[in-house]
Amino acid sequence: MSSSVERFDEKARRKFSRYGQTVVHHGELLRHPIYTRVLHWTVAISFILSLLSGFAIYSPWLYRWLTPLFGGGPMTRLLHPWFGVVFDVAFFFQFLNWFVPMHWTKVDKRWLKEAKGYFTNKEALAPKDTGFFNGGQKLYFWSIAFCAILFLITGLLLWFDHVVPRGIVAVSYAFHDIAAVIMLLGFIAHIYETTAAQPGTFQAMVDGTVSEDWAWTHHPAWYEEVTGRDSREAYERARDRQAERQQAIEAWEREHDATERPQSSLKPEPRDEDEASRN
Q1: pLDDT tier at 59, thresholds 50, 70, 90
Q2: Which domains, from first to last, does the chain contain?
Q3: pLDDT for 24-48, tens place per residue?
Q4: 144-162 as b/e, with b when 16 or more CB fall inside 10 Å?
Q5: Are strands 209-211 and 28-30 parallel, antiparallel or unpaired?
Q6: pTM for this one?
């Protein structure tokens, strides 16, 4: 199955590469090609639209605030399941796109054990064997896959509730809401991790590239795979360069202060008003 999925995904990537080109500058690495970015943003936008329209239907308090965004209550109810269809279809192709690198391994178990020190900044670098995706990203991916299946099954039952027994419809509402809560919590954590926690991650889904510093910091094994260089040695070199820059700045400040002090000592002292009036 993995080989057939890889062949399909490679064919899709080649087709999408005809419609654009990812520019990789010096000191950067290609992280996500155009095909992956299109899928990601299609999934993200359709989920946000599904979330907002779903909140509008679910909550009477939010109903009057959110339904105008979609053209009123009836239009919101009409569009919500279609947003869900787009989400599920787009995620199906994203699932194929990332199926192979998202395989769970022993490395991911070790990553989860060491994740606390990494997230609390006690460790400057991710574990050395962290590949293209880390354990946290894989957990989020598989939770989306689980929720997407729940959304699809329960959504269809709710969509055609006129032919489904009422008891099944009631249960479907509960599981649909549970999936929505799981997705919302994961989405919030995802936004935080890709912006404030790991600056430079968001850029990967905009122009497809990341800096080499970002790569050896967060995904050392992937950095070594694509560059052939040791991630820890790259970190040591960067730390040495930073120390040299800091020393140069401090030396310049000392020299600047030394040249400023003699000039200030040569300035004439101001005379008091009585002496000035006598003169």
Answers
A1: confident
A2: 2-240 (1.20.950.20)
A3: 999 999 999 999 999 999 999 999 9
A4: bbebbebbbebbebbeeee
A5: antiparallel
A6: 0.85
